[in-house]
Amino acid sequence: MPEFLFYQLTDSPLEALLPALLEKAIGQGWRVAVQGPDAARLDFLDAHLWNYKKESFLPHAQAGGAHDAAQPVLLGPVGAAANKAEMLVLIDGGAPDLTGLEAHERVCIVFDGNDADMLNGARAQWRTVSAAGFAAVYWAREGGRWQQKATSAAKT
To answer: Which domains does the chain have, with CATH numbers?
Structure first.
C-alpha cells in the first residue's frame, strides 16, 4: 500500500522541486512516473530536466517511445505507467486512480498552493485518500523550507 505525500508549492515552482524528488527516488533505485493532464507542461518539464543543472544528468523520457519500459523516469498523461514505477508524481491537478496502486511505494501529489482551484482539488484528494485508508503526509513550503502540516495514518 503506497504512502501519499502532498506537496503544496507556494514560494517556488514545480521545476524547482521535481529534480530533487526524482534524484532521491533514483538514488533509492526506484523508477518514477511523472504524470499530468497538460501535454505542453510535460514537454516543458522534459526540456527542463535535461538542462536544470550543468553538472548532473537525470535520465528520463516522455511516454510513447519504444523504450518506455526501460526508463527510470517517464513523463506522461495520468494513467498506467509503462516503466512499472515505484513512485508516482502527479502534477497540475492530476488525480490518482486509487485502484491498482499496489506497485507504487509512494504517490506524490504536487500542486500550486497559490491557485485556489489546485488547492481545493488537493484538499479533496486528501480527503479521498485518507477516507480510503492510505497513509498520507501534507507538506507546505513556507519561507524557503518544507513544513509538515498534516498526517493521516493508514487504516488496516
So the answer is: 3-152 (3.40.50.10110)
